[in-house]
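During the practical work, I worked with a single protein chain and the tokens that describe its fold, as given directly below.
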Amino acid sequence: MNKPWARRAVGAAIALAVGVALTACGSSGGTGGAAVSGDGEYTGPDVDITFWHGWTGGAAPTIVPKLIEKFNSEHPNITVKSVPQEWGDIAAKMPLAIKAGKGPDVAVLHGDDLATYAAQKLLLSADDIVKGLDYDAEDFPQGVFDKGNYGGTQYAVPWSVTPLGLYVNKEVLAKAGITDIPTDKAGYLAALDALKGAGVQGEWVDGYVFTGTFEFQSLIWQFGGDLYNDDVTEAAFNSDAGVKALTWMTDLVANGYSPANVAQDGNIKALIGGQTAFNWNGVWQTTNTAFNDLDWAAAPVPQIGTEKAVWSSSTHWVFPANKGQDANKTAAAAVFVKWMNDNSLGWAETGELPAANTVREDPSLLQKWPNLAPFMDELEYAHYETVSPGIGEANAQITLGLNEALTGQKDPKAALDETADKVNQILKSNQAKYGG
């Protein structure tokens, strides 16, 4: 359900009730609360709000300041101060800063970080903010809004989505006499065989997060499996579906379609260098300047399994529960979030898809960035990050297991079973640490 187009207008006359129920949880465990209401223009006292984010490369360092400058010019009683830093630095600094009451008023987190912050009571409930801004799950791609929900409480508002896709070097593909990009298992295997006959290893598969892990996750969902059980208390990736997914990847090496021991980023470099035809990689590569002199195309990842599925990451707006958090600042931050989402068309230039449906469906987006079309099509069947506190440590083990299989140290079943044992211990430890 799309909301009326007028919701996107800057400074719209329609009042947006920003009901913010604040429960600021400090390190001492004390709580304090205040109820604040505002509208799209924010009628409270003048406030300065700090915004932490990890966009320090690509087009983002240009786009973010321009958006903030425009917002500040249109909201004289709100001054947003951007604090860009590396994502790793945010992970290290922000929890401690929030507990000390020195964290930002608004920040952006990746989907797989949300539950960890929420479980530690580092985020304000966003239920009333979401309601006040007239948001619901249908305003965003299917499945992504719920990634901000932990323990029945909404803690986040989606900002962007970044699905995996198939990148194609058309010149290399032409060496095998192929003009059509394959879309299914039969077509993909036929293309790999034809490329092999032309002396080309068609897809270089790696055992690293970028992007072997993302390929494995896409494949396990395509074969009807999942990474974890429903309540994320046990690993599920060592199922028949998981074995099929990893066997597909190891067979790429065994059958000569891929070299062994592909280095981190070796596959995308091989695609750009004309050594391979296919690379499963994220939408962010559409902004790779190394593609400028390349005859290339992007397409949805082929359907290897029985279902259409593809991995996607996501980023979300959150409202930190700083000790002594100013309710007016949180209300102003909510206005900022709504304005940023409504004005996020240009965010596509960074290689990320705006999460707001009304913005992403603006025809001018694909007119300006036509290479995003296949990634937009995939959102109907995209799968997003697992929501569970501490899940990052478990996911890291999956990557290690994939690497062992892809480097020939273990067969797929053994690698996944041994990894599942390690992951189950981590999940048990997370239950004790975070509860839930």
Summary: The longest strand covers residues 157-169.
